[in-house]
Design brief:
Length: about 500
């Protein structure tokens, strides 16, 4: 089973294109409408998409999770006479790339530097994961082209989403809501407490583009900017595994999200004339099952914390129906929740709920009643601005920041999580410092590079004790988001150049 998992990882990350290797478990809804067992299968679930999403998710995660067992085998070989050759063969077979010769060749002097080798492998796997994402577009949505038109038909020209920065919500856009990731804006914040000024800036930019360039539609079209906040809770362990930023208090998380949304709306209304306003939507996610609850607004756009549609209940109520019956009950439930909801808003919510039924089915089919990793299980920390490729749950701990000082609390939480995940096992904390820039803007790359260097230096200063013990490693990368290219690696604290042919 593990072997199949590893082969899958190589195939998904673009190594030799083997075929016929089955992933560990496929989603239960492959045969559309096979809900007889009640465990999985739903008439509105998209089985084929579930299979593709699972192949991708399990492949990427296996690529990271194969590192430790492979390095254990490498370690066992280090006193053999042909150690370097055998280690490289093993790395190629299991990981799909060569290990850095400099680290291997020093092994005869002292012990093999496993923490360095581990960090190097995580960074190399991350680089390959990015390369694959930008070159092959593995998460492209079948309805991506149609989405913009659909959104405008619902009365919105932009969908701007702020989830909590918790790694268990990193897959919100492409998995939980099944939206095309390039057609919506995502900016995560601890506790979903988005920056109102940053959102105002985005709103101004959006309206300016409509006015000047007619993108995505002209300024006179009667559509609005829609801001969505996603808070989260845990159905399995509500007292402890909810949103850390709100003390695992679901009500508090929801109320804080709503308050921030209202502050943004108020700011737009007070700052701009001519009836300028935005629309708001609040959703909650159960991080154990990925089921959403949508707080359906009324005709005036008001949101009530106690008035929502729960996708989990909807799933259970409709899983034995025909697709037509299920879709019809879905529509009735949304309108029943808030009878005077605007019709465009109702249509959008229906689609979000219908998409979420596929995700509930996905989790049930692939993992059982709930995720086995209900808590943190991230593979690395990402700090900076960017990370469009991270659309997978529990892969990366996000710390969006411009400076280490401003995000000190988020980073401390990340380091604490990784002290338990990695340092306790003698493994270093791998941090990717990343700043995306607009290549069309003169000097933008240079500023991104300077940003990376400053943040990396501040990280080593703040966590000097860990760094001194070799338990903190940083790779600095930038990316031109206008070029649709992969990341550019600037520097890495692992003191090794890759083996010839590895890059
Ligand atoms: Zn949270």
């Amino acid at each position: 089973m593990q072997r199949a998992h590893r082969q899958q990882s190589r195939r998904t990350l673009g190594w030799s294109a083997g075929t016929g290797t089955a992933p560990l478990r496929r989603p239960g809804a492959v045969g559309r409408g096979s809900g007889a067992g009640g465990e999985s299968g739903h008439p509105l679930s998209r089985g084929r998409e579930n299979t593709a999403l699972f192949d991708y998710e399990s492949g990427v995660k296996a690529a990271f999770d194969t590192i430790v067992p492979t390095l254990k085998q490498v370690s066992a070989l280090q006193h053999e006479s042909d150690f370097e050759l055998r280690a490289q063969r093993l790395a190629q077979a299991e990981l799909g790339f060569d290990l850095p010769e400099a680290i291997l060749s020093d092994a005869w002097i002292a012990q093999l530097d496993m923490p360095q080798l581990f960090a190097w492998c995580v960074f190399e796997t991350y680089r390959r994961y990015c390369d694959q994402f930008y070159a092959q577009d593995p998460l492209v949505a079948g309805d991506a082209d149609e989405f913009e038109g659909f959104l405008q038909a619902c009365g919105f020209h932009t969908l701007d989403i702020s989830p909590c920065a918790d790694g268990r919500l990193a897959h919100l856009v492409r998995y939980v809501l099944r939206l095309p990731h390039r057609s919506v804006r995502r900016k995560s914040y601890a506790g979903a407490m988005f920056d109102v000024d940053d959102s105002i800036q985005k709103w101004v930019e959006t309206e300016m583009l409509r006015f000047r360039e007619g993108r995505p539609n002209t300024a006179d079209a009667p559509t609005r900017y829609l801001k969505l906040v996603a808070y989260h809770h845990s159905s399995v362990d509500p007292e402890h595994a909810g949103c850390a930023a709100h003390g695992s208090d679901t009500r508090r998380a929801a109320a804080a999200g709503l308050e921030r949304l209202q502050a943004f709306q108020q700011a737009i209304e007070n700052s701009f004339c001519c009836g300028a306003s935005i629309d708001l939507l609040l959703i909650g996610i159960d991080t154990d099952t990925d089921a959403i609850r949508v707080h359906v607004p009324d005709a005036r756009g008001s949101i009530d914390l106690d008035r929502y549609v729960d996708a989990q209940a909807l799933f259970d109520a409709t899983c034995r129906m025909t697709a037509t019956q299920a879709a019809s009950l879905l529509g009735e439930t949304v309108r029943g929740c808030s009878p005077d909801v605007a019709s465009g808003m109702a249509t959008l919510i229906e689609r979000l709920l219908e998409h979420n039924l596929s995700q509930i089915d996905y989790v049930r089919g692939c993992y059982g009643q709930q995720y086995p990793d209900g808590d943190h299980a991230e593979r690395f920390i990402g700090a900076g601005v960017g990370f469009e490729e991270v659309q997978l749950r529990n892969l990366m701990y996000f710390a969006y920041l411009d400076t280490v000082e401003e995000a000190a609390q988020d980073l401390d939480v990340g380091v604490k999580i990784f002290s338990a995940l990695n340092v306790s096992r003698g493994l270093p904390i791998p941090v990717v410092v990343r700043f995306d820039y607009h290549g069309r803007v003169p000097g933008a790359r240079e500023r991104a590079v300077t940003h990376c260097q400053r943040v990396a230096k501040a990280l080593f200063g703040r966590y000097a004790e860990l760094a001194g013990r070799g338990l903190l490693h940083v790779m600095q990368v930038v990316r031109d988001c206008n070029a649709n290219a992969s990341i550019e690696v600037l520097e890495c604290s692992v003191n090794a150049t890759p083996a010839a042919g590895a890059h």
